[in-house]
Amino acid sequence: MIKAVLFDLDGTLLDRDRSVEDFIGDQYERLNKWFGHIPKNLYMTRFIELDSRGYVWKDKVYQQLVDEFQITGIDWLYLLEDYKSEFKNHCIPFPNLHHMLGELKSNNLVLGIITNGYGQFQMDNIKALGIEAYFETILVSEWEGIRKPDPQIFMRALNQLNVTPDQSVFVGDHPENDVKAAQNVGMKCMWKRDSQWDQVEADFIVNDLRDIASTIIHINREAALR
Questions:
Q1: If you ran DSSP here, which 8-state letter would residue 195 be given?
Q2: DSSP label at residue 209
Q3: Which long-range contacts (CB under 8 A, 24 or more apart) does 36-42 make?
Q4: Contacts from 200-207 at CB under 8 Å and sequence distance 24+?
């Protein structure tokens, strides 16, 4: 019987690709005084390339951009602070986010988030999505001192929810940090399909958030009949 569902954030609940594109386009417009010599599409494309889907922190991204595009009158520290303070205003959820979380809660499942990243930055994004209240526990790697795929961060979340690994499902998009890491501690794992990877050996695969609740409800109904 599944009692708890835990989620990754970026690429799972938060449509990070669209959010980054929305933010960086807005940043270009707001700071056009310093970026005007750079074509907008070039600035956006290069940022997205250097960002590497969030796996490169923005200090390095902005240092590279300032150097490559010979940006003057504004430094990379200012740009980094702008990112940290403004990104939350551009958070775009995947479709059916609130409906899915509400359906899980209405079926008496406890919910958690385990995400890598900087603590306040990720919490700001969670709050921007309006989903903080759905979760009994939220673990962010910076604040925990450990990060996925370390099994300790999964076990810490499960202990806080008072459930065992076999009573839990982890939903994520990354084959190693989410799928294999959760399976290694004995959890079931649901892969939210991402076009970056072709084949992922998950227990369940979903294309849309709306499929998560129905899948877990079906699992529990079958378990109840055994």
A1: T
A2: T
A3: 37/69, 38/69, 38/71
A4: 200/175, 203/169, 204/169, 206/171
**Tokens read off for 44:** 């956006």
Stated pTM of the model: 0.94
CA distance 139 to 126: 12
Q: CA-CA distances (angstroms) from residue 109 to 2, 71, 119, 182, 188?
A: 8, 50, 25, 18, 15
CA 122 from chain centre, in angstroms, equals 8
How many residues in the chain? Answer: 226
| Contact (Cβ atoms closer than 8 angstroms) between residue 9 and residue 113 | yes
- Token digits of residue 108: 């008496």
The mean pLDDT value of the chain amounts to 96
Q: What is the DSSP letter of 53?
A: G
3-state secondary structure of 92: coil
Q: Three-state SS for 107?
A: coil
- In tens digits, the chain (226 residues) has pLDDT values of 999 999 999 999 999 999 999 999 999 999 999 999 999 999 999 999 999 988 898 999 999 999 999 999 999 999 999 999 999 999 999 999 999 999 999 999 999 999 999 999 999 999 999 999 999 999 999 999 999 999 999 999 999 999 999 999 999 999 999 999 999 999 999 999 987 888 889 999 999 999 999 999 989 988 888 7
From the list 175, 210, 221, 189, the residue with the least C-alpha distance to 6 is 189
Reported as half-sphere exposure (CB side, CA atoms, 13 A), residue 226 has a value of 7
Q: Alpha-carbon distance 164 to 34, whole Å?
A: 53
